[in-house]
Amino acid sequence: RKDLKASLWSIGFFCSSEDGFKYISDLNKKFNGMLFSNLFEFVCYLIGIAENHSSLSVRITCFYCLNLIAK
Q1: DSSP secondary structure of 6-66
Q2: SS3 54
Q3: Candidate from 8-12, 28-32, 40-44, 60-64 with smallest mean pLDDT
Q4: Are residues 39 and 28 in contact, defined by beta-carbon separation less than 8 angstroms?
Q5: How confident is the model at residue 18, as a pLDDT?
Q6: CB 42 within 8 A of CB 36
Q7: Phi/psi of residue 36, nearest 5 degrees
Q8: Could you tell me the sign of the dihedral formed by the alpha carbons of 56, 60, 65, 70, in that order?
């Protein structure tokens, strides 16, 4: 659980900047969409974790990270 939460925080802070979000988009293009078909799918994946994970602390962490990305 701690590793997942740490990863979520990393992604949240990384994507909170315009350059970080662009980097994730470029990285996805580099791998021919193997990570996610588009960034909307990436955000939907994070929403799925926030809604459905069994651990409340992981769901809350994901919610906070989504808020970071949305700013």
Answers
A1: HHHHHHHHHHTSHHHHHHHHHHHHHTTTSS-SSHHHHHHHHHHHHHH-S-HHHHHHHHHHH
A2: coil
A3: 28-32
A4: yes
A5: 83
A6: yes
A7: -150, 150
A8: positive
User: Smallest Cα–Cα separation from 45: which of 16, 8, 2, 6?
Assistant: 8
Supply the Cα-derived Rg of the chain in whole angstroms: 12
Q: Whole-model pTM above 0.85?
A: no
Residue whose token pair is 């990384």: 14
What type of residue sits at position 8?
L
Tokens of 16: 């909170």
Both tokens of 1, joined, read: 């659980």
Structure token digits, residue 33: 């969409």
